[in-house]
Amino acid sequence: MYPFLKRKILNTIIVLLSFSCFVYSQTNTESLFKEAKELSKKALEIGANIFSKSNFEKGTDNYKEAEDVLKGGGNADEVKSKLTLSIDYFNKSIETAKLININFAELMKTRQLAINAGAVESNPKEWKDAESNFLDAVDEFNDKNMEKVKKYSDAAETIYKDAELKAIKHRYLNNVYAAITSAEDNDLNKFAPITLKKSKQLVQNVETILDANRYDTVTARNTAQQALYEVNHGNYMQGVFKKMNEQEKTREDLILSWEEPLIKIASEFNINPAFDNGYDNVTSLIVKNINDKRAAIDEEVKNNFKLKSDIEELKKSIEDYKIKITNVENEKAEIKTQLEELEKNTKLKESLYTMFLPSEAEIARDGELIVIRLINLIFPASKATLEPQYFNLLSKVEKAIRLFPNCTVVIEGHTDAQGVNQKNVDLSQARADAIYQYLMANLGINTNKISAIGYGATKPITNNTTEEGKARNRRIEIVINPHLTDTK
């Protein structure tokens, strides 16, 4: 190979290796930044910035320094070194914070409740004192001075709880305090002292409620809203009184203005209001009419509810009848189908009776079974040879079997009582097998639907004392089970 070509290949390999190292280094750096950032977030979540302040700050400083080096195009190894230190410090701060969280679990819970109540914002001074005591407790814990741990923990818990309670009171009463202060500055006590006093008493009630149970939020909220209402109510009255003074209105004007709403309401009930004896009579009449209307509405609602209930019952009854009608229709259809099947099967059986001549076969019923007794099929003495002259008769047997597509067939061979019993059984079996083989060859049906059995002389249909009786007992019977129910 030419030297210049070798150098070119070598330079290409060096460039590729350098690029690969650069890509790996960049990917590794990105991974370290991501890990450090996630650890910083985790550390903040468990309070490591407070309980392991030094380690957390070192971790943060190294992370920022790594960012600065990277932005300035500095050495990649320096970036990784600072990130590694950052990750190490964050891990140390997390471990310390976990230990504090475990050993100061109850205090942490109290602290979190204060945070949730907004104590950090509403009571910054107390919050700072509580945090200071907490950190002192942590320091003493690290120094294993349990007596001082308890001292500072108890102090922190007390301040946290006080700050929480004040924050809760601030949440419910801040607007009310502001409204009362503004009202007093505007001389509300001069115009509506009773209402103002009532508002202040409600504020005191809120504080009493929260002192007893700071989490009784429903009662506290409702009472605070009532206190705010009373202040606003007083402000309204103050406005009315000031407006009267400005417009030189008299007390008579005020009373007449109060009567106007009552007159409007009374007119809706066709009441002719009279105030010569005060407002009680008119008020009572209005209330009575309102109660009468309410009672009438309640009765109407009750009737409507009953009507609705009746309608639902009727709907249910209609649905029940629909189901019953559907069931009856289904039963009718099923009965119709059964009748059609019965008629069809009856015709099939009737056609079977007309298929054979009386001299060829006897047709009998044994329950559901149909028995075709081939009285004109005769085998040579002591033999099972099927002679061609009976093929026409067996063709009719084939047609009879085909009438019932779902049927199963048993070919029974029988002999008279003459001779040895076992030989008679064997002979009857051979003759039944001969018929079986013929039918199987011509029917082409499943072998499990047709079978052959020899009974010998065990099932005579008459006595064996006469030649005529013996001739009748020597017979082949085709027993058909039509399985008519399977055709539904």
Secondary-structure map:
Elements: H1 3-45, H2 48-51, H3 53-71, H4 76-103, H5 105-117, H6 119-122, H7 124-142, H8 146-185, H9 188-191, H10 193-212, H11 217-246, H12 251-268, H13 280-355, E1 362-366, E2 369-374, H14 391-402, E3 408-414, H15 421-443, E4 450-456, H16 467-473, E5 475-481
Parallel strand pairs: 3-4
Antiparallel strand pairs: 1-2, 2-5, 3-5
Helix pairs in contact: 1-3, 1-4, 3-4, 5-8, 7-8, 8-10, 8-11, 10-11, 14-15
Could you please describe the fold and organization of this structure?
The chain is an alpha+beta fold and 488 residues long. It contains 16 helices and five strands. A five-stranded mixed sheet has the order 1-2-5-3-4.
Summarize the structure.
The chain has 488 residues and is an alpha+beta fold. It has 4 domains: 25-103; 106-238, no CATH class; 277-355; 356-487, 60s Ribosomal Protein L30, Chain: A (2-Layer Sandwich).
Overall 3D form:
elongated
> In which range does the helix fraction lie?
over 70%
Low-confidence stretches: 13-24
Number of domains: 4
The major β-sheet equals: 5 strands, mixed
**Numbering strands along the chain, what is their spatial order in the largest sheet?**
1-2-5-3-4
Mean pLDDT: 87
The ordered string of helix (H) and strand (E) elements is HHHHHHHHHHHHHEEHEHEHE
CA-based gyration radius: 55 Å
**Class per helix and strand makeup:** alpha+beta
Strand content: 5-15%
